[in-house]
Design a protein that fits this description.
This protein is mostly beta strands. The chain contains two helices and 17 strands. The chain is about 5% helix and about 25% strand. The strands form five sheets. It has a seven-stranded antiparallel β-sheet with strand order 9-16-10-13-14-15-17, with no helix packed on it. Strands 7-6-5-8 form a four-stranded antiparallel β-sheet, with no helix packed on it. A two-stranded antiparallel ribbon has the order 1-2.
């Protein structure tokens, strides 16, 4: 994928860019692998907003992506590389030898006609092949990594991301995650060899609020522009500062910056070898 910049015929075009979609080989999804995606707009089952700034957006069909890849030792052929509106990376439609079809996350460098394989044993570490981390050569990059064996990939699923396998010691494999965090994962957990596609996704400049509304993202308003009843930063004359406070606050009065939000003593604490780097 590349980034395309249009001739700046208006202020929004001057500051925006779009994907080129030259890497796609199909325009319509496989009908048997899609379902209706209901909109929640950040509301829970009682209708209360639990996640702010969500709503609207284009209608989407959800692609049934297989994160487990548990059809073992059956070779599959890549049929198409497709766009998925629900994620940044591309997805690929594969067909197994028994004609069963499935959607998987597409890595960089995969092409139509390539063969991929998923196994519980040691296989050749080609791009798109999946196996337990203990059988993957140290130093290779992996994505769609499991935390619990057999549960399916939960780590490293964003566009352009990958984790590097550092070492295998005892019961665990050590991974360097995209955030820079060093983490231990059980060596029986599966990972897919490669780097996820569409690495240029983070370089897109959206340019105007309307494009974000198409994504289902509603406007955010600064607290200092609100009334005192709505936000601790509110009130004052004009564009006033936040006043004599210890620091920036959330809308609910809690300190917003410089406070650790991770629960102390969390069960997974022991698996973190080195924290991610602060930006």
């Amino acid at each position: 994928m590349g980034i395309k910049v249009y001739k700046p015929i208006n202020p929004a075009r001057r500051k925006s860019s779009v994907q080129t979609f030259t890497d796609l080989t199909a325009t319509k999804p496989e009908k048997s692998l899609i379902k209706i995606l209901k909109k929640n707009s950040g509301r829970n089952n009682t209708g209360k907003i639990t996640v702010r700034h969500q709503g609207g957006g284009e209608k989407r069909m959800y692609r049934l992506v297989d994160f487990k890849m548990q059809k073992f030792d059956v070779e599959a052929e890549v049929k198409t590389i497709e766009y998925d509106p629900n994620r940044g990376c591309r997805i690929m439609l594969i067909e197994y030898a028994d004609k069963e079809k499935s959607y998987h996350l597409a890595p960089n460098g995969i092409k139509v006609g390539d063969k991929i394989l998923s196994s519980k044993n040691r296989i050749e570490a080609n791009i798109g092949c999946r196996m337990p981390l203990e059988f993957i050569p140290v130093g290779l990059f992996v994505y769609n990594v499991e935390i619990t064996p057999g549960k399916g990939g939960q780590l490293v699923r964003g566009a352009g991301n990958s984790a590097q396998l550092q070492v295998i010691e005892g019961k665990y494999a050590q991974l360097r995650l995209p955030s820079g965090e060093l983490r231990l994962v059980k060596k029986e957990c599966a990972g897919t060899v490669g780097v996820l596609s569409n690495s240029d996704y983070s370089l897109i400049r959206w340019g105007k609020a309307g494009r974000k509304r198409h994504l289902g993202i509603r406007p955010r308003v600064k607290g200092k522009n609100m009334n005192p009843i709505d936000h601790p930063h509110g009130g004052g004359e004009g564009h006033s500062p936040i006043g004599l406070k210890a620091g920036p606050k959330t809308p609910w009065g809690k300190i917003a910056r410089g406070v650790k939000t991770r629960k102390p003593g969390k069960w997974s604490e022991k698996f973190i070898v080195q924290r991610r780097k602060k930006k």
